[in-house]
UniProtKB/TrEMBL annotation:
Record bears the keyword Signal: no
PANTHER family (alphabetical): FLAVIN-BINDING MONOOXYGENASE-LIKE PROTEIN (AFU_ORTHOLOGUE AFUA_4G09220) (PTHR43539), FLAVIN-CONTAINING MONOOXYGENASE (PTHR43539:SF78)
NCBIfam families: MSMEG_0569_nitr
Protein name per the record: FAD-dependent oxidoreductase
GO molecular function terms listed in the Swiss-Prot or TrEMBL record: flavin adenine dinucleotide binding; monooxygenase activity
A Pfam match: Pyr_redox_3
InterPro entries on file: Auxin_biosynth/cation_transpt, CHP04046_FMN-dependent, FAD/NAD-bd_sf
Keywords annotated in UniProt: Oxidoreductase
Keyword Oxidoreductase: yes
Length: 423
């Protein structure tokens, strides 16, 4: 490895490799540094029955798109891994795997030093441009009071969950109802485990509506292409957890009320706990109502789109609750309920402490516009809402990566031609 490389891309997932694809097309010398392997996050941090929640046709990367037999279906974890592995040989990126970047330090005003910890020990390179593609928020969140709970209760984060058999016998408490929490709760429920679910404030969406996948309708309506500053609801909408739904078994709604009818125990927001006692806020009824209201609101938006264009489609409908709690449970005695495991599915937080640059807000999030920061030479890619709702998803990665790469090419060599679109 040279001691100086014009561009270092830090993170070898689909976002970083997409930037690499465009840099390669422009003839820009660079390396992509990956702490594990290119498909590590998909192969090793998804549960066995994981499926995409976005239709397969959303899966588009530079020079490469899903072309299988089921564009409206949902790839499983292993199918996603195979699909990504098929992309890499099409352009052979300069990928340095099993090497972690432990420090990114500015040298003067026009250069960075990148400290690498790899198979040959600690080394370093310098670069003119550094692209951070390490994912949105890499540190799993577990509440502080988790350490005060009964040590006999097995606790894991959602990224450590793979299947029901890895857990001790007994009931399971899943905390959080984002996409991972609801799908893991369903996975356990379908396996016959008694599930207790602490419900957060995530909204939900219909899987299919009026003859098509809702995400296909939303794409046609331009929701995934609307710039963040123009998106309805502004910053508040962007801070919300993604809508829960599943692609399992061909795709279906996730209806927590239906789960309750079938025996799942639902609670409001988990606030604290000690030993075998957990306490919950009285938020369950409101959370269920608001999730259903979002579900129906999205259906109404689709109705208006259909009507405005005169599209022929099946008749509209609305979700009607199949269950409602008599009261919001205030406590759960883990021992009395036979709960032997807790799965924390309450998200992640940013960790950019290894980057020595003034590019972050008070919450540790990058301050960027379409990935470009005010720090010369420092950019990001693969962040949620980096440019649109589609950013961070397969559907938006190509466009975001091209923009960042084009910016880099322009800085490095004003005489280079603009990058051509991949597809």
């Amino acid at each position: 490895m040279n001691t100086h490389v014009p561009v270092v891309v830090i993170g070898g997932g689909q976002a970083g490799l997409s930037v690499s694809w465009y840099l390669g097309q422009a003839g820009v010398e660079h390396i992509v540094v990956e702490a594990e392997t290119a498909v590590h996050a998909w192969a090793d941090k998804r549960w066995d029955n994981f499926t995409l929640v976005t239709p397969n046709w959303h899966c588009r990367l530079p020079g490469y798109a899903y072309d299988g037999p089921d564009p409206d279906g949902f790839m499983t974890r292993d199918e996603v891994v195979a699909w990504l592995e098929g992309w890499l040989p099409t352009f052979e990126p300069p990928l340095v795997e099993h090497t972690r970047v432990t420090r990114l330090q500015r040298l003067g005003v026009d250069r960075f030093e990148v400290t690498l910890d790899g198979p040959d020990g600690v080394t370093s390179v310098t670069c003119d441009q550094a692209v951070i593609a390490t994912g949105g928020y890499p540190l799993p969140v577990i509440p502080a009071f988790a350490s005060a709970l009964d040590p006999a209760v097995h606790q894991i984060h959602s990224e450590e969950y793979f299947n029901p058999d890895q857990l001790p016998e007994g009931a399971v408490l899943v905390v959080g109802t984002g996409q991972s929490g609801t799908q893991i709760a369903e996975d356990l429920h379908l396996a016959g485990r008694q599930v207790h679910l602490a419900v957060g404030n995530a909204p939900r969406v219909a899987r299919f509506y009026r003859g098509r996948d809702c995400m296909t309708w939303l794409s046609d309506m331009g929701l995934y292409d609307t710039p963040t500053q123009e998106y309805p609801g502004g910053r508040a909408a962007q801070e919300k957890t993604n809508h829960y739904v599943t692609g399992r078994d061909g795709g279906r709604d996730i209806d927590l009320r239906r789960f309750a009818v079938e025996g799942m125990q639902l609670y409001g927001m988990l606030t604290d706990g000690k030993d075998s006692t957990l306490r919950f806020a009285p938020t369950l009824s409101d959370a269920l109502d608001k999730a259903d209201a979002t579900y129906n609101s999205i259906c109404s938006d689709i109705d208006r789109h259909i009507d405005s264009l005169g599209i022929e489609a099946p008749e509209p409908s609305r979700y009607e609750p199949v269950w409602a709690p008599d009261e919001d449970p205030a406590e759960l005695d883990l021992a009395a309920a036979g709960v032997t495991s807790i799965i924390w599915a309450i998200g992640y937080r940013p960790d950019y402490r290894w980057i020595e640059a003034s590019a972050f807000d008070g919450g540790g999030r990058p301050m960027q516009t379409r990935g470009i920061t005010e720090v010369p030479g420092l950019s990001f890619v693969g962040l949620p809402w980096m440019h649109t709702w589609g950013s961070g998803r397969f559907l938006g990665i190509d466009r975001d990566a091209r923009y960042v790469a084009e910016h880099i090419v322009g800085v490095l060599d004003q005489g280079r031609p603009r990058l051509a679109a991949a597809q």
